[in-house]
Each structure stands twice: as C-alpha cells, then as structure tokens.
Amino acid sequence: MNAHLEYRGAFLTQVVAMILNNCLWVVFWGLFFTRLTVLRGWTVQDVITLWAIAASGFGLAHAICGNALQISNLIVQG
After folding, report:
1. Is there a contact between 52 and 26 (Cβ–Cβ < 8 Å)?
2. 11 touches 1 (CB < 8 A)
3. How far is the C-alpha of 4 from the C-alpha of 11, rounded, in Å?
4. Contacting residues for 61 by C-beta, under 8 A, at least 6 apart
5. Alpha helices per DSSP H over 1-78
6. Along the chain (78 residues), what's the average pLDDT of each consecutive run of 10 residues?
7. Contact 44, 26 (CB under 8 A)
8. Which residues have a Cβ under 8 Å from the Cβ of 48 and sit 6 or more positions away?
9. How far apart are the first and last CA of the chain?
10. d(CA 58, CA 22)
C-alpha cells in the first residue's frame, strides 16, 4: 500500500487502465450479442451479470486480503 501512495501517478494510471479494460469488455459483449441475441440460452444480461459478480468477488477479496497474493514472498522474507 505504501508503494501505491508513493507512486501516485503509476497507481492512477493502473486505475484508469483497469476502468478502460472493464468498459471495453462490456462493449465487446454488447457487440457480440447484437449479432447473436441468444447463445445457448445465454443473453447479454446473463454474461454481464456473471462477469460483474466474478469481478466484484475478486475485487472484494483483494481489498480485504490485499497481500494474499504475496503471502509466500512475505513468509520467505520474514
């Protein structure tokens, strides 16, 4: 967290890039389902809902357990 506060420009760039990435995925699925309205029973609302739930779950888990992905490195370093 201290590294993010120290390099605010890099942090803000990462936030903007992730927002852009998420918006592009929504646009992709929107365009995909304009050509195929239903794909094996799945509609654009189903796909966006599933994607939003998965992304929210990852975001909440990362916010609550922020260093979980670096736990092995933290253990090795003491």
Report:
1. no
2. no
3. 6
4. 68
5. 2-6, 8-35, 44-64, 71-77
6. 71 89 88 85 88 88 80 83
7. no
8. 26, 29
9. 18
10. 13
The answer to whether 26 and 48 are in contact (CB under 8 A) is: yes
- Both tokens assigned to 20: 């852009």
* Cα gap 41→37, rounded to integer Å: 9
Q: Which two tokens stand for residue 30?
A: 């929107």
Query: What is the rounded CA–CA span in Å between residue 56 and residue 22?
Result: 12
d(CA 29, CA 76): 42
Give buried/exposed letters for 7-19 (b at 16+ CB in 10 A, else e).
eeeeeeeeeeeee
Inter-residue contact 44 to 29 (CB < 8 Å):
yes
